[in-house]
Write a structure and sequence with these properties.
Oligomer: single chain
Low-confidence stretches: none
Order of helices and strands: HHEEEHEEEEEEEEEH
Strand content: 15-25%
Number of helices: 4
Mean pLDDT: 84
Strand order of the largest sheet: 1-2-3-6-5-4
Helix content: 25-40%
Radius of gyration: 59 Å
Length: 324
């Protein structure tokens, strides 16, 4: 009889002790999740690392591109702002320069009257300084024994004597007998007695001789061209602390009889020179000369200086010069 094969002993499964931990029992026919996600071979692991690297690189490229895009946008905005600011700044500079130029023009326009006054004051001072050494204040008496004053100026001078031209009205009493004493004075110097030599009542001119030589001469202006209407003229007197005083006006008419002007003159000015702006003598100041037969207040006639050559002076060439 056949013998039955021996059977392996059946080991009875013993249940784990209560509270003992152990790995969960696998579910038959199902692969664990970690094996489905993570590769289990070297090639798989390498592929995974390569994929992660490529993904990271792509992400870096995307992030850098986005960063560069935003940076470019920011730079564009900044450049636009800077360009706009520069343009506004340039416009503001242009407006400021225009306003500055306009303000300067307005200031210059407002300064013109002041500059003219300053120029006139300087001109007056220079004229007095220039003519002062040739000016004299004349003092005498009239026919009634009352003071008579005026001015005189040097028209010729040699080493011993000087010839002074003045107003006949001032020294009229000294042309008669008995004649009062006639004195001339410069500034604070003592008065000096002079002699009335010749005169011309029609043109209100007279010549006095001073026994002092070497004095500067005031030269006449050339007769051509004559002064224009509106031209400034200056009357000078020998009375003044600075060696003389001055009054300015303008020519209102020019004729064969003389110059009509509106320069304010007092008795102390009559017989003094009427100068142009360069200091040359145009005429002799007078308060009595009236070639039209009448006088008007505020407007005076002045005989030309060369009228003195008719009766008062001996002028070789018909006009007053340094050799008269």
């Amino acid at each position: 009889a056949r013998r039955a094969p021996a059977r392996a002993p059946v080991v009875a499964a013993t249940a784990p002790a209560a509270g003992a931990a152990g790995p969960p029992a696998p579910i038959p026919g199902r692969t664990p999740a970690r094996y489905r996600v993570l590769p289990r071979t070297l090639l798989g692991i390498t592929s995974l690392i390569l994929a992660l690297a490529i993904g990271a690189s792509f992400s870096g490229v995307v992030l850098y591109s986005y960063y560069q895009y935003r940076l470019d946008q920011t730079n564009d905005r900044v450049n636009t702002l800077i360009s706009g600011y520069k343009k506004q700044f340039q416009n503001a500079e242009g407006r400021l320069a225009a306003q500055t130029s306009q303000a300067k023009s307005q200031i210059q326009a407002q300064l013109v009257p002041l500059q003219q006054l300053e120029a006139q004051a300087q001109t007056l001072t220079e004229l007095v300084k220039q003519a002062g050494p040739s000016l004299f204040f004349v003092r005498t008496q009239d026919q009634n024994g009352q003071p008579s004053v005026g001015s005189a100026f040097v028209v010729a001078s040699n080493p011993t004597q000087s010839l002074l031209l003045t107003s006949y009205t001032t020294v009229a009493a000294a042309t008669q007998s008995p004649a009062p004493q006639v004195e001339v004075q410069q500034g604070a110097a003592l008065p000096v007695t002079v002699t009335v030599r010749t005169w011309d009542p029609a043109h209100d001119l007279a010549l006095i001789v001073l026994d002092r030589g070497g004095l500067p001469v005031l030269y006449p202006a050339p007769p051509i061209p004559p002064p224009a209407v509106g031209e400034r003229v200056f009357a000078l007197s020998g009375l003044g602390a600075a060696g003389g005083s001055i009054s300015q006006g303008a020519v209102t008419e020019v004729s064969a009889d003389g110059i009509e002007h509106n320069t304010a003159i007092s008795s102390a000015y009559q017989g003094g020179p009427l100068l142009d702006s360069s200091g040359r003598v145009l005429a002799v100041t007078s308060r009595a000369y009236a070639p039209l037969g009448f006088s008007s207040d505020g407007v005076w006639f002045a005989p030309y200086i060369n009228f003195a050559c008719q009766k008062v002076l001996d002028c070789p060439n018909g006009s007053i010069s340094s050799s008269t």
